[in-house]
């Protein structure tokens, strides 16, 4: 951790989609991943919204951390500051979308408030701080992690849609089978781990 | 009072167990469960945060404007999480490094917000604190069971002590992410089955005691 080898932003980008996928390898954003994955279209919409918000908030949190928190020596307050930044940026994104991109707002609008409490957004910001990324790295990390979430939730929703009518043991219906599917997807993603690795 | 306490205990430990019955707080429960020691520290941290944030929120429940209550509750929770984070960093630097960002993520752990919203805002401080403690214990217990299975199968150890079973081969998959998914799936399955059996038994006794009387629904 923290050694001074510079990791290429593109490596971070692809690693955060495939090998360090935030759902399948880091267990972030599980709540919405489990509960909003019954329909492919909705899941994909949430994935897009998360990708967008994550890229924006990671960059914002990077700027706030670097230019406000560190100079003032307030590292211990970073959780509160990050949450406030996330809540505020989601609010702003919502307003801007409502004003200028109405079509997009109608499609993604309902997911935005949900995202504020998504642990993945805060988690990615915290990972960024711990791994000491610079601006470009943080941007690619946020974007890649969002895309990774989109990929994972779309894959899960597509599988769940296909097997909606299949017979399951009673107790396994719902969350139980979701976790088993996720486990199998996660196993498949381990196959990528030889290509590139961060942490 | 006593009845209320009993209800709180039963609900949180089994009937509405946060992890396996309500599927809340999954993020952290999976990420920290490959070693029992880490899990225990995390569990105690969550119990602490739950207990005191429930107490505080409940004590302030008449003063929090309902429109901005989410923000207020998040700030209260975040303050306690910072205390836990600083404490773990000072006392157990090794474990703090292993837990990484997951201590901070207690803030967005749905269990805490869930208990605050569902219980602390409507009940007196003392009962709310008890509710928080037992919700935390219900969470920590499940985590410890998951960690026990994963550590035992993945490293052949319990709390870091080797069991020295001859011919034991570690199941590396158990300490990797997929192992966590499989173990929690099996636990949810078992939980649902046990609950179904209990329900059936209750139904039967109800039918027997009701005797010949008409039973609606």
Describe the structure.
The complex is a heterodimer of chains A (199) and B (217). Chain A is built from 9 helices and no strands. With 199 residues, chain A is mostly helical. Chain A has one domain. The radius of gyration of chain A is 18 Å and the shape is globular. By secondary structure, chain B is mainly α. Chain B has one domain. Chain B is built from 9 helices and 2 strands. In chain B, helix 3 packs antiparallel against helix 7 and helix 6 packs antiparallel against helix 7. The two termini of chain B are 32 Å apart. The chains are: A mainly alpha (199), B mainly alpha (217). At the A-B interface, helix 2, helix 4, helix 7 and helix 9 of A face helix 2, helix 4 and helix 9 of B.
In short:
The complex is a heterodimer of chains A (199) and B (217). By secondary structure, chain A is mainly α.
Strand-helix topology:
The complex is a heterodimer of chains A (199) and B (217).
Chain A: H1 9-17, H2 30-35, H3 40-72, H4 78-100, H5 102-108, H6 111-116, H7 119-130, H8 135-162, H9 175-190
Helix pairs in contact in A: 1-8, 3-4, 3-7, 3-8, 4-5, 4-7, 8-9
Chain B: H1 2-15, H2 26-31, H3 36-59, H4 69-91, H5 93-99, H6 110-120, H7 125-155, E1 157-158, E2 161-162, H8 172-175, H9 177-210
Helix pairs in contact in B: 1-7, 3-4, 3-6, 3-7, 4-5, 6-7
